Protein 1
Amino acid sequence: MTALSAAHRAALEAVVQACPDDGLAQLEAAVGGLPGDKAAELAILVQAEIRDRARRDRAFAPWRPCFAPAPTRWRP
């Protein structure tokens, strides 16, 4: 049985997914020093999110130029 209930896990996943990249790195550092099973599960969630973001960044990197804003035209 896991230390986190399904509701707690879902709530923590939503918080982790909403964190910006720098906030996620800070959260990883903060959770890494906490004792207990719940903290270990949260650390796993954070590490999984970091891996997913890196995977998405790598997969979608070739498509980024297609979605960049168009350059503005010079007008006299």
Protein 2
Amino acid sequence: MNRTLTVVVSGAVGIGLGALSGRILFGGSAWNLIPWAIVAIAIGLLATDRVTALLASGVYGYLLCAVFLYTANTGNTPQAQRILFALALGLVGPVCSIVLTLLTRVISRQLVRRREP
């Protein structure tokens, strides 16, 4: 899969999973971290190179976190404040996703090196 397609698919998965997690999946609880982490690990394993993994993981993490925060916020907050809140705190998502993706790539490379004679 080329870089652009990988990033676009990762972003779409982030939007879909964020929307599901905010309303339906586990009721917005901490259990959502499990499927989020599985997808970040999959990005690390499926990306063809490090740059693609970083871009795809960053886009996935940001869109996942921003959409989740927007959909999970069901209070009487005005729409503009909900959007700004989600956009600002959405910056936490890429940091976590990129760290997990890079850790996955490092571990998988080490395992492959051990298998080679």
Protein 3
Amino acid sequence: MSEAFALVLRPDASFDVIEWNSTGDTLSTLYREICCLSIAVVDVSPELSLWLDDEGMLKNRAVNIPALRIYATSAPIHQSYHGTAVFTGGPDTEGDTKGLTLDQCHALLKLAGIDVPTVPDPRN
């Protein structure tokens, strides 16, 4: 079984990489990480989804500049995204949301302008 992750990215550029079980109760995970009651998904590409609070702007949540930077690499920005964002892989053929690899999470952080050092391989 391969490892799968999601990137939780906050407006202040803090983040977490969490384990992602694409066949479990993924909506509960999203609601918990985003801290909201109404979730929207934006398909950044067929392989990348952006999940966020559908009412973030109405709740005066901060604009998520790091998430906008990632989105802007695929299309012109047409609206602002507010509050915590969660990035996952796109849907698989059965409609389940795939996870990301750690390398993909790292690449997304670089696109967001967040410098994260790579962890060296363990020495034996």
